[in-house]
TrEMBL record, chain A:
<dbReference type="InterPro" id="IPR011012">
    <property type="entry name" value="Longin-like_dom_sf"/>
</dbReference>
<dbReference type="GO" id="GO:0006886">
    <property type="term" value="P:intracellular protein transport"/>
</dbReference>
<dbReference type="InterPro" id="IPR018240">
    <property type="entry name" value="Clathrin_mu_CS"/>
</dbReference>
<comment type="similarity">
    <text>Belongs to the adaptor complexes medium subunit family.</text>
</comment>
<dbReference type="GO" id="GO:0016192">
    <property type="term" value="P:vesicle-mediated transport"/>
</dbReference>
<feature type="domain" description="MHD">
    <location>
        <begin position="176"/>
        <end position="415"/>
    </location>
</feature>
<dbReference type="InterPro" id="IPR028565">
    <property type="entry name" value="MHD"/>
</dbReference>
<dbReference type="InterPro" id="IPR001392">
    <property type="entry name" value="Clathrin_mu"/>
</dbReference>
<dbReference type="InterPro" id="IPR036168">
    <property type="entry name" value="AP2_Mu_C_sf"/>
</dbReference>
TrEMBL record, chain B:
<keyword id="KW-0472">Membrane</keyword>
<dbReference type="InterPro" id="IPR016024">
    <property type="entry name" value="ARM-type_fold"/>
</dbReference>
<dbReference type="InterPro" id="IPR026740">
    <property type="entry name" value="AP3_beta"/>
</dbReference>
<dbReference type="GO" id="GO:0005794">
    <property type="term" value="C:Golgi apparatus"/>
</dbReference>
<keyword id="KW-0813">Transport</keyword>
<feature type="compositionally biased region" description="Low complexity">
    <location>
        <begin position="757"/>
        <end position="770"/>
    </location>
</feature>
<keyword id="KW-0653">Protein transport</keyword>
<comment type="similarity">
    <text>Belongs to the adaptor complexes large subunit family.</text>
</comment>
<dbReference type="InterPro" id="IPR056314">
    <property type="entry name" value="AP3B1/2_C"/>
</dbReference>
């Protein structure tokens, strides 16, 4: 499947390569660079590029390109999904996926790539298993290793791969047993210029941090499971029980993982916790810009981390704004205005207004900037989803359990 | 150059070696050539330090190909590794050995894969499966033997292996559909538990498979979609009699149960977190599902649009293809395709495509409103695409053509030239459809021609005016005049249109334009471009023929030629034609055939034989001896307990076994009952018999179930019903006391609770083979199976009885024993012996029980229940269980009555030491391969023609074995295992030569093997 992998940084240097079959020359990446040249932004590079003998499938993330070389027909999503899985694994090992950490930890990276893919086919991709095969680096171990000359390869061999629950290693032990679940919901919305909602949906996910001894079997039930009609699960969740009883029953992996993610579509009513009033217009060599935000339907919760940004048309040379709260910045190159409102205190809704300076001698722009909104609301799941209870079977101790709700703005855009 | 590294590698200290290896790996990672270090590195392959070893492996995989001779030095280390007791070391040795790509070691690789294939560790077997495509790419000549290995590995039941072997199958022999038949149902049922990458491989393989094996579920609808172009569900309500008639005429489509099974089993995977899995299911439904069911995938695909950018791009591409063919699926999700300002251009363009495809009369107004927003975007490429999209909506939906046109015309006053140009091009196409109504638009455009600089747009206007000059007779010559002025500075495409315009006007309006036309053609004559010169020469001769050539033939038709009515262009989706490729494939993504792409076959016209997928029940393979089996039970057990812990709470006492068999039989009940009835309708008078038996048994069985006072869920009572129906059927002939029966029943239920059965994979064999599967697992299967088969079984087993006690020596009490061949209820390893006591004296005999037993080493006996009394002239039966320890030594014991004691002995014919085991042919051959040499007895027997037909019966009279369904009609195979040790006994008779048969008996226990051999030989 995957012949080779090239890692390319934003300066278009190939800083690492790995071949699972006969080595493919670096020059194959020229096709990729050509495509990159044509693309207007790094985001815009097509994921699949065809070359005379091979196919290149590329993912772009964290300002890194992973360019994989494919020789034969294969589902592109297979490869894309896998490349992202590799990046996820790096993040899990090194806390970030950047050129620096990859170069610093090239031995671990190479060992990981070796374990994850055999002859181009995925072999071990569960992080629990990988972590047993190859220990993640940490400072203490690095020091110890350099002093003693020991290695970060586990000298005992992992059991997880061989057990029937490949995502959990056996023999887990914790002094304090805890299981936390974060219900995070992101609101995606497009609001049109008149303030009516064109489109809104909620993407939620339940992220878990489970530190439990032994082989616990957990059951998570909801007060209103009917809300979830479009869900995707971590492999540990038993499909059947969900279908029959609408409870999540699973043997959790050890540590952090995303238990499930769900999607509440545009058909259902989605209440939007925020409203934005705006007024942008151009006149001659200047323009007016005014935005006011306010909250509604937040059930008494306070909106935090409120941030409003808008990319101005090319013709805008500068802005001069006055926020009633928080501060703003303007990046002249990207033409982006960012207004950091912060916590939205109850009372007068925060607003920002001021003047835009336009480039002289050029007709005023036609398009108006789209306003993107970011916010966070603690202790609220905007969909109304509530966890009922968490039960544990097959282990004796009493775990500490906790559930947290957060609502965030996802792709929340207001057209002006 | 790298002397320092070489030195470090030669040192004895591990940390120096490690340091050196790390640096070498760093070189490889950066793409520097490190091949000159090969000799120094390869020495360290035997290094004790695991990390050094791993890094050496990495190095070898990279460079061994280039330094084949030196690489051979490392082979012996791997071979040693293959024999290691640690499974992970075996696996990694196999992995590296197969990865170094040195053609000389192909035979070694082959051996290693063969060993790995039968390894007891599923992890090693997985690695072996991975090694298959590697070997294949190294040496394609090995294909045949690799296919054999794949065939064997396909029967592996562990989820770990399933995905990998299917990948190997796809790589090596995707054309061998026949290999999949037997595993189809198993793969379907395992699907949910396989790892995500394996799921993708299996799903795509099964899609292809299903395309060759099932008929098109939509054919029925398609055939009258042509007549009445309506979605089918409306037809139900519409009472159009014509349609009704057609409906009746067409044969009712019945989906193959296996087809249904596949759809059912893949559906939950739509909830996978892995987008590739979701896509794989979606394409499976799209390509295989009945039209009305395809919509289930929409929700999941729309969910993927929240994923990573690359995922979005690919998914949108596929959705675009799907919407082009079947609009309805995604109609409800229209708004999910609205463009966001943060989307990169290629995603926007694809969203536009989807929106356009989804446009219908009812939603066009919202879509157009959305498009209006897009037109104002600052991304000009996107705006251009939007304009095209609007035009497509306009052509597809007549109601809005005018609105769209008006909208597009308003765009003509846009300040951005690109927008205007694109609009012109698009308007030109639209106008062609209906020019007469829109002459004001044409005028408007004529006015624009001076300002527009984009060649394509300019050319379009000129063409429009030339074509429709009749609507703008006054303006047209003026436009030409202006255009001619700038002729030399125009692009080629514009020049051509100027010439065209001149020619057309010359024909319609010669008076005003003759001079202009001549001027243009003169300019064209000396143009730099061939094309222009050619065109002007051609036009000149067409419209103003010079006198010498003037036969005037063509000239007469010039008007017809130039002003022929031209068909309006059809605005097509750029995605048209992509549906030739399988959805989700690389070829689909690049819209060209990728290397190794195989076209998805069309559905066959007629359904191929569905019975090829039926598999005999593999009874309790956990009891099968040998390496593979030993490793399996714990695996199996926990794997299913994982499943059933989720079920237990609801179904109470029903255990994992019952649950599985339940779901299995549920899935396949259709086929089972079908083949079941095949059997009953079969050749002879048995029909009525078995029917009777069935009828009789059902009621008492159910009654018994409720009698036993247990609260069962419905399914478990159904199952115990079936097991007791079997019970009763033997009762028909034996008539054991009813007391025993209930007792036995309880026992069965207990076993049910305690035991974990491997799922008795869906069952019955072809109608020609009668099955002997008295194991509990098979008892648990559907009623229909129980009835027909077990009657026959009782017929063969109730045969001989042996004398235990003669009535003379017993003082009137006589006893006989026989082997009913029913599974022993006391213990797994015991054999059931049925004792029949008859009182031929004239007084009752009381308190018959077992007295002193002289047990040889290892023998175990479960006494029969004491018999209170036997009236004179009557007889009673009782059963006891004896564990003969797989020997034929007799059991000697005393039978005591109230007053006397008789010393008796029970002898066992060797054939009764065996219990039948059903296995598949491949499994059989596999086992036979293992049990060769000393464990094999071979010989030739004369078999008269008369016996040949009844050979199964003959053999089974002697040995308690089960028939292995065979693909060759003249080879009979039987399988069993010894009751105590569970050693496999295999018997095969090859009748290929006339009158003489080759008899082969394989058994782990050599003594038993040879004794069985002798007995069978005598009997035949």
């Amino acid at each position: 499947m995957i012949h080779s992998l090239f890692m390319v940084n934003s300066h278009r240097d190939i800083f690492m390569e790995k071949h699972w079959k006969t080595a493919v020359k670096r020059s194959i990446c020229d096709y990729f660079f050509n495509a990159l040249e044509k693309a207007s932004s790094p985001e815009d590079i097509p994921p699949v590029i065809s070359t005379p003998h091979h196919y290149l499938i590329t993912v772009y993330r964290d300002r890194l390109y992973f360019v994989s070389v494919i020789g034969k027909e294969v589902q592109p999503l297979f490869v894309i999904e896998f490349l992202h899985r590799i990046m996820d694994t790096f993040v899990e090992y090194f806390n970030e996926c950047s050129e620096r950490v990859i170069k610093e930890n090239y031995v671990v990276v190479y060992e990981l790539l070796e374990e994850m893919l055999d002859n181009g086919f995925p072999l071990a991709t569960e992080s629990n298993v990988l972590k047993e095969l190859i220990k993640p680096p940490n400072i203490l171990r690095t020091v110890v290793n350099t002093v003693t000359g020991q290695s970060n390869v586990a000298d005992h061999l992992p059991t997880g791969q061989l057990s029937n629950i490949p995502w959990r290693r056996s023999g887990v032990k914790y002094a304090s047993n805890e299981a936390y679940f974060d219900v995070t919901e992101e609101v995606d919305a497009i609001i049109d210029r008149s303030g009516s909602t064109v489109f809104a949906e909620i993407h939620g996910s339940i992220d878990a941090c489970v530190k439990l001894t032994g082989m616990p079997d957990l059951t998570l039930s909801f007060v209103n499971p009917r809300m979830l009609d479009d869900v995707s699960f971590h492999p540990c969740v038993r499909f059947k029980r969900w279908e029959n009883e609408k409870v999540l029953s699973f043997v959790p992996p050890d540590g952090n993982f995303t238990l499930c993610s769900y999607h509440i579509g545009s058909q259902g009513m989605v209440s939007i916790p925020i409203y934005v009033k705006h007024n942008v217009h151009y006149a001659g060599s200047g323009g007016k810009f005014e935005v006011t935000v306010g909250s509604r339907h937040t059930m008494g919760k306070i909106i935090e981390d409120l941030r409003i940004s808008a990319v101005m048309p090319k013709q805008v040379t500068n802005v001069n704004l006055l926020p009633s709260q928080g501060e703003y910045s303007f990046k002249p190159v990207e033409k982006e205005v960012v207004w950091d409102v912060g916590r939205m205190a109850p009372g007068k809704p925060p607003s920002i207004k001021g003047i835009l300076s336009l480039q002289a001698g050029v007709p005023a722009p036609e398009e108006k900037p789209t306003v993107t909104v970011h916010f966070k609301i603690q202790q609220l799941a905007i969909s109304g989803l509530r966890v009922n209870r968490l039960d544990m079977y097959s282990e004796k101790y009493k775990p500490f359990k906790g559930v947290k709700y957060i609502t965030k703005a996802g792709k929340f855009q207001v057209r002006t | 150059r790298y002397d320092d590294l070489k030195n470090m590698l030669d040192q004895n200290k591990d940390f120096l070696k490690l340091e050196a290896m790390k640096r070498i790996i760093g070189m490889i990672a950066k793409g520097k050539n490190a091949s000159s270090l090969f000799p120094a590195v390869v020495k360290n392959v035997a290094c004790k330090n695991i990390e050094v070893k791993k890094l050496v492996y990495v190095y070898l995989e990279r460079y061994a190909e280039e330094q084949q001779d030196l690489a051979l030095l490392s082979i012996s280390t791997f071979q040693r590794g293959l024999k290691d007791h640690n499974q992970l070391i075996r696996a990694s040795a196999l992995r590296v050995l197969s990865s170094i790509r040195v053609p000389i070691i192909v035979p070694i690789m082959m051996l290693a894969i063969k060993d790995g294939m039968t390894d007891m560790s599923p992890f090693v077997r997985k690695t072996a499966a991975h090694a298959i495509p590697k070997l294949y790419s190294l040496d394609p000549d090995q294909k045949e033997s690799l296919i054999e290995i794949i065939d064997k590995l396909l029967s592996d039941r562990t989820t770990l292996v399933a995905g990998s072997v299917v990948m190997a199958y796809q790589e090596v022999c995707p054309e061998r559909v026949d290999l999949v038949h037997r595993h189809f149902r198993k793969l379907c049922n395992l699907l949910v538990d396989v790892d995500e990458w394996g799921q993708i491989a299996i799903l795509s393989m099964l899609t292809r498979y299903a395309r060759t094996q099932f008929t098109d579920p939509n054919k029925y609808y398609d055939s009258f979609d042509g007549i009445a172009d309506k979605p089918f569900y409306e037809e139900e309500s519409s009472s159009d009699s014509d349609e009704e008639k057609i409906k009746e005429k067409l044969p009712k489509y019945v989906m193959d149960p296996d087809h249904r099974l596949l759809l059912k089993c893949s559906k939950p995977l739509l909830q996978s977190r892995n987008s590739a899995v979701v896509m794989a299911v979606a394409q499976l439904y799209y390509h295989l599902g009945p039209r009305q069911e395809v919509s289930v995938v929409a929700k999941a695909l729309v969910r993927l649009l929240r994923g990573r950018r690359e995922v979005q791009a690919v998914v949108l591409q596929n959705i675009a293809s799907m919407t082009l063919m079947r609009k309805g699926i995604f109609e409800a999700f229209l708004k999910s395709f609205y463009v966001r300002s943060t989307d990169p251009t290629h995603i926007r363009v694809m969203k536009l495509e989807v929106l356009t495809n989804l446009a219908t009369e009812s939603n066009i107004s919202i879509i157009l409103r959305e498009f209006q927003t897009y037109v104002r975007s600052s991304d000009k490429q996107f705006v251009a695409h939007t304009i095209q999209a609007i035009a497509r909506c306009a052509t597809n939906i007549e109601e809005v053509t005018d609105t769209c046109l008006a909208g597009l015309v308003s765009l003509l006053s846009n300040r951005d030239e690109a927008v205007v140009a694109e609009s012109i091009v698009v308007i030109k196409k639209l106008l062609q459809m209906n020019p007469s109504q829109h002459c004001d638009i044409i005028k408007h455009m004529a006015r624009l021609v001076d300002n527009i600089q984009v060649p394509m747009a300019k050319a379009s206007i000129l063409w429009l005016i030339g074509e429709y000059s009749e609507f703008v007779p006054k303006i047209a010559p003026d436009v030409l005049r202006k255009a001619v002025k700038h002729f030399p500075s125009q692009e080629n495409i514009v020049k051509l249109q100027i010439i065209n315009l001149a020619a057309k006007l010359f024909i319609t309006n010669q008076r005003q334009t003759k001079l202009l036309a001549q001027y243009v053609l003169q300019l064209g004559k000396y143009d730099q471009s061939y094309d222009i010169r050619d065109r002007s020469r051609f036009i000149r001769h067409l419209i103003m023929p010079s006198s010498e050539l003037a036969n005037g033939q063509i000239h007469k038709h010039a008007k017809k030629i130039l002003l022929a009515p031209k068909p309006a262009p059809v605005l097509e989706s750029p995605f048209k034609g992509r549906d030739a490729y399988q959805l989700g494939s690389l070829s689909h993504a690049i819209n060209a055939e990728a290397n190794g792409y195989q076209k998805l076959p069309d559905f066959p016209e007629t359904q191929p034989d569905p019975s090829v997928r039926t598999v005999e029940p593999v009874t309790t393979d956990r009891r099968r001896p040998g390496r593979t089996a030993r490793s399996k039970p714990p695996k199996k057990k926990s794997f299913y307990s994982d499943e059933d812990s989720s079920e237990e709470s609801e179904s109470g006492s029903s255990s994992s076994g019952s649950e599985d068999s339940e779901s299995d039989s549920g899935d396949s009940s259709y086929s089972e009952s079908e083949s079941g009835s095949d059997e009953t309708e079969g050749p002879d008078s048995r029909v009525s018999d078995s029917d009777k038996v069935k009828k009789k048994t059902v009621t008492p069985a159910l009654a018994a179930a409720s009698d036993s006072g247990r609260s069962h869920s419905e399914e478990s009572s159904g199952e115990s019903g079936s097991s007791s129906s079997e019970e009763e059927s033997s009762e028909e002939e034996v008539k054991p006391p009813p007391k025993r029966q209930t007792k036995r029943k309880k026992e069965t239920v207990n076993l049910l609770d305690l035991d974990d059965f491997s799922p008795p994979s869906v069952s019955p064999s072809k109608s020609s083979t009668s099955l002997l599967t008295p194991m509990l697992a098979s008892d648990l299967q559907g009623l229909s199976l129980g009835g027909a088969n077990h009657v026959e079984m009782a017929g063969t087993s109730s045969g001989k009885s042996y004398e235990l006690l003669h009535r003379v020596t017993g003082g009137g009490l006589s006893a006989k024993y026989r082997y009913p061949r029913s599974p022993c209820i006391y213990s797994d390893t015991m054999i059931t012996v049925e004792l029949e006591f008859t009182n031929s004296s004239d007084s009752p005999i009381q308190n018959i029980h077992i007295g002193e037993k002289k047990l040889q080493a290892g023998l175990k006996v479960h006494d029969f229940a004491e018999i209170d009394a036997i009236e004179p002239g009557s007889s009673k039966t009782s059963t006891m269980g004896i564990d003969f320890c797989d020997t034929t030594q007799p059991l000697v014991f005393d039978i005591c009555t109230k007053s006397r004691k008789f010393n008796v002995s029970v002898k066992i014919p060797v054939g009764e030491l065996v219990k039948p085991v059903s296995m598949a042919q491949t499994e059989f051959l596999n086992q036979q391969g293992i049990l060769s040499g000393m464990n094999e007895n071979k010989g030739k027997v004369n078999v008269p023609e008369t016996i040949q037909s009844s050979i199964n019966k003959k053999v089974m009279e002697i040995v308690n074995v089960c028939i292995v369904p065979s693909t060759q009609s003249n080879i009979h195979r039987y399988a069993g295992k010894t009751a105590h040790g569970g050693s496999v006994l295999l018997l095969s008779i090859d009748l290929s030569e006339s009158g003489e048969a080759k008899l082969i008996v394989n058994c782990d226990k050599m003594v038993i093997g040879s004794m069985v051999f002798k007995q069978v030989k005598e009997a035949l």
